[in-house]
TrEMBL record:
GO terms for biological process: regulation of RNA splicing. The keyword Transferase applies. Pfam families: Pkinase (PF00069). PANTHER family: SERINE/THREONINE-PROTEIN KINASE DOA-RELATED, SERINE_THREONINE-PROTEIN KINASE DOA. The keyword ATP-binding applies. Residues 1-227 form the Protein kinase domain. Gene3D superfamilies: Phosphorylase Kinase, domain 1, Transferase(Phosphotransferase) domain 1. It comes from Glarea lozoyensis (strain ATCC 74030 / MF5533). This is Putative serine/threonine-protein kinase sky1.
Length: 231
């Protein structure tokens, strides 16, 4: 076992020789430059690549198109037909259904996109997920932060998890000792240009929602006015 502070390269472990040996700085197919390793699991490693083919700038942020396929035109079902139950996602990006150990589908990726877009544009975390006393991740602080921004979750949503009662009472109200912070999208968004701040917040609200079925699909997000630079 190695501590979290000890550098660790999973590619050196037995069994990884069957995978392609990606290296930082490598350019793949003369199109994608590997710039960072985001994480790894038991059967895959996630790398961040820069698409060397520039697409366009939207609201001051650069977008890139996939070199061979262009911007996707077709997407699968809104939430996917397959449900999973194992733990996924880095702590700050965990969707509510993952935190509460509910079955989850593709909509967790939409939540991820929303949180990551916020991180990149605002340069700060959307949710406070750490216990201030220990500096460790705690689900009760994460959930309290979500409640502070979105309001209480629908009772029907909480009833999908046997673990909801740890954090919420039978009426769906917050019951943990750590308080729910008071925050609004409008006050929390500081770095976005004031002229399109409202449109940006509306874009975020399509992704950051309690229930997975209420989140926008990938194809719907692709047509969002803020993303298209129309506002």
């Amino acid at each position: 076992m190695s501590s979290s502070t000890t550098p660790f390269e999973e590619e050196r472990e037995a069994g990884f020789e069957k995978f392609y040996p990606v290296t930082l700085g490598e350019v793949i197919n003369e199109k994608y430059k590997v710039v960072a390793k985001l994480g790894f699991g038991s059967a895959s490693t996630i790398w961040c690549c820069r698409d060397l083919i520039f697409y366009k700038s939207v609201n001051g942020y650069n977008l890139y198109r996939t070199a061979l396929f262009g911007i996707p035109k077709k997407f699968g079902p809104r939430n996917g037909a397959t449900e999973h139950s194992h733990d996924i996602q880095p702590d700050p990006y965990r969707a509510p259904e993952v935190i509460l150990e509910m079955p989850w589908g593709y909509a967790v990726d939409i939540w991820n996109v929303g949180v990551m877009v916020w991180d990149m544009i605002e340069n700060k975390r959307l949710f406070d997920v750490l216990d201030p006393k220990t500096a460790n991740y705690e689900s009760r602080f994460h959930l309290a932060s979500i409640v502070g921004l979105l309001g209480p979750p629908p009772l029907e949503f909480l009833q999908r998890s046997e673990f909801s009662s740890v954090h919420f009472n039978e009426k769906g109200d917050w019951k943990c000792v750590n308080p729910v912070p008071s925050v609004s999208w409008e006050d929390f968004a500081e770095n976005i240009n004031i002229s399109n701040k409202k449109a940006f917040i509306e874009f975020m609200r399509k992704m950051i929602r309690w229930t997975p079925e209420s989140r926008a699909s990938a194809s719907e997000l692709l047509e969002d006015p803020w993303l298209l630079g129309e506002v």
